[in-house]
Amino acid sequence: MRTVRWETEWVEDMPDVMERGKVYISIKHRLTEHLCACGCKAEVSLPLGRSDWRIEYDGETVSLRPSVGNWRLPCGSHYIIRESRTQWCRAWSPEEVMAGRIRDRQEKEWDIKRKLKERVWWKRILQRILAAVKDKWMRLTGKP
Question: What CA–CA distances, in Å, run from 33 to 13, 23, 101?
C-alpha cells in the first residue's frame, strides 16, 4: 500500500522499527529516515546537508528536497515529499540516474572545497592576530 500522507517525528536517534507513513528526522545526526512510499517496506535513509537533502518544516507539514530516487531498490520508486504528501515522479532512465549521480558527486566535491576555503580563511585571520600579538609582545618586552 502506497503512502499518501506523512507524519513527522523528530527524534534524537532513529528508531529500531519504523512505522509506515512516518518521516523520522534527527537534527543531531543530520539524517532523515522513512519506509519507502511505494509500500515495499524498504528503509530509506537520507543525509541532511547543503549538498544532500534539505527539510522544510512549517510547524505542521514537512517537505524534503530534492526528490527521493530509490534507484538501488527493486521498486525503483521516485517521489517527492511535499507538505507531508507524496508526489510521484516519473522513473528515470539508467542514463539519467548516472548523470544525477555524477552531478551529486560534483556538488559534494564543491561543498567540501567551499568548507575547506572557509576554514583556511579563518586560519589566516588567526595567524595574523597571533603574529600581531607576538610583535606587540616583542616590542613591549624586547624578548622574542
Answer: 11, 6, 20
> Can you tell me the distance from the alpha carbon of 55 to that of 33, in angstroms, rounded to the nearest whole number?
12
* CB-based contact 13:32 (threshold 8 Å): no
H helix intervals, 4-93: none
* Integer angstrom CA distances of residue 131 from 39, 40, 135: 61, 61, 6
* Entry pTM: 0.73
What b-and-e string marks burial along 21-35, b requiring 16 or more CB atoms within 10 Å of the CB? Answer: bbbbbbeeeebbbbb
* 78-124 pLDDT tens trace: 999 999 999 999 999 999 999 998 998 898 888 888 777 776 677 77
- Distance between CA atoms of residues 18 and 22, nearest Å: 8
Mark whether 27 and 61 lie in a shared domain: yes
For residue 125, give its domain range: 93-144
Which SS3 state, helix, strand or coil, does residue 7 take?
strand
Q: Cell numbers for 1, please give them.
A: 500500500
Residue 81 and residue 97 in one domain: no
**CB–CB of 35/45 below 8 Å?**
no
